[in-house]
Amino acid sequence: MLTAEEKHQIDHEISLVPSPKNACIEALKIVQQREGWVSDESLKDVAEYVGMSTAELDSVATFYNLIFRRPVGRHVILLCDSISCYVMGYEDIKEQLFNKLSIQYGQTTADGRFTLLPNCCLGTCDCAPALMIDNDLYRNLTVDQLDEILSKYT
Amino acid sequence: MEKPLTQHIVPGRKPLNLKEYEQVGGYASVRKVLKEMAPQEVQTLVKDSNLRGRGGAGFNTGLKWSFVPMGPEAAQPKYLVANADEMEPGTFKDRLLLEGNPHQLIEGMIVAAYAIEASISYVFLRWAYKVAAREITQAIQEAYAAGYLGKNILGSGFNLEMHLHTGVGRYMCGEETALLNALEGKRANPRAKPPFPQVSGLFGKPTIVNNVETLCNLPHIINNGAEWFKKLGLTEDAGTKLYGVSGRVKKPGCWELPMGTTIREILEEHAGGMQDGYLFRGLLPGGASTDFLVEEHLDLPMDYPSIQAAGSRMGTGTMIILDDQTCPVGFTLNLQHFFAQESCGFCTPCREGLPWVEKILLAIDKGEGKPEHLLTLDFHTKYLGPGNTFCALAPGAMEPLQSALKYFREDFERHIHEHHCPWSKSKVWQPSI
User: Fold this and answer.
1) For the whole prediction, is pTM greater than 0.90?
2) ipTM strictly over 0.90?
């Protein structure tokens, strides 16, 4: 069920566009903000609210890599794997994260704390390698910074 | 040396707020166009300035605008969109402008919207630019409060609404028609052209999509004139350009320099040359989708015609350096993995061809390559080239591949003959999921 606050926010987005369907990505973002991801149930609620079939909305939701259609941990780590970070050695960071968190890409730690995803270019190539955790950007990364960075997130 | 775009940007300092921006002459161009110039005059001035699109295509901005239907008969509302999606790997120039001086972008957008008589505008910002999102949100609020946005701007009768839209990923959103689909709440597949967005764009209405750096140039062109702008460039291309360098150089970064500054000056004077222990082998001049240039090209001016004549594209003007300790096959594999992943899947050559290319490169990098693999890669560079796909993604992907096969072919052959990657005794780059 969409909350009253979510409906209020989605209504605002709908008011800016010609048809409610045009606000569907905004609506997915709003729902994801509360739950961290978009469940089948939420997808159905949003589809009904904006007047789309569930399949049509899912075709949009699954197109975009930052709409999560599977549950994620409390914090999402996005590690840049694009060319400048490749040249500057992001793979060492990747291996350390795999080891420290005991997960691979696409997985969530057993305690539900982190999900690790690869991500294309974060647009900070002069400070490669780089990663983002939630809304925080970390750049000029070295492996010995990782423990301190991870410890900020509970 | 004049640096109009970055003169008020101090890295690490908060951007100018509206009052501070006005004190250094901010929004003067809005006053000027609204009071003294007709929209067509703004178009002509910008066309004459030879401002070319800074997103990578390099099309004359004023000319692009001139295809928008004008006057009372034109379809309404018309839209102006700032393309702030900046997702070309290796590119980080618009971030500087977005975080460093958001009012300059808003001012440029008002000028552009006035020139095409648009009444609604969007900043399409990539999700990763969180600082930029905060600064732009605040700057838009300030601009509304000061009467630069909204109804009857400065008593002129001109109206303009402005919204910030943050994306949810995908490289395709940087392509202007795909961006419009994303703004409409659809999958970001590109659209067939014609009709061009100037005639039928966002929600089927006339629309212009301009890059952030392009828009930020407008206030300065309005204030100082077309001749001033042309004289900023060292070659036939006008203005200044944000150039960037990433990779194994001493001081990677982004600098505003006269258009036509040589690659060597950018690399050696501004980026400080190669790091100790690393040698230069090649570079992509303007992002992941541009052809390699090598040593012999270093004295070329970085402008649109010079780089094109050398068989590449200036693209976004942000270079990525290939050093001697990075495997050219691994480098190319990383790029092709990116393009294969980011293909929207709409047209067959791109959807099927790019993963094939990636698989072959992975085999070669692992030491499992066969001599005929190089021929398969060669034909992909033709069949995924311009004219064979629905949009420019796959042709862009083929640019670094075809030039890697040209300049570094011996390295590809060594992988195949020696059955391993000469740069790595045990480890091969594994593409992410």
Assistant:
1) yes
2) yes
